[in-house]
Input
Amino acid sequence: MCRKRPKPRQFFLFNDILVYGNIIINKKKYNKQHIIPLEEVKLESLEDDGQLRNGWLIKTASKSFAVYAATSTEKQEWMAHINKCIEDLLRKSGKKAIEDHAAVWVPDSEALVCMHCNKNQFTVINRRHHCRKCGAVVCGPCSNKKFRLPNQSSKPLRVCLNCYDILSKAKNQSNYQNNISSKPGN
Output
């Protein structure tokens, strides 16, 4: 599920990576392949909602998105196989599962007005923006701040005002605690 509409993708599961891409010619040529290391993946089942059925979230530190299978059985098999590969990989490597994942973006079609102020209606001039921290669809004034999210980019990214306030407070508190613990006598 892309932010604008559902798009078909072909997935390939290996014991340490998940690869997905666009189908180009009769399912024989693949373009724009994306590789996801399985040690970063967390799966979350989605409830069926109208025409969107048999879905689950694939969450990683840098990108998260919804996937929908043709049948309930296919969904269960994919989730079971991916989870088994993740468990085996983490057990063999001794690593811990990543806990901080990128937000799943709310599809554009689900927001006719800004999800932050509930006032600004989206038009050709008043564009939709996605908060990179929570995934909400917001207007320009409600997302005019940027914050560095190290798992997603080395540059500061667009975030909504709510997330900016939360992230700023957490950063200030962390800096304050670091300053206290680094003073002599502590």
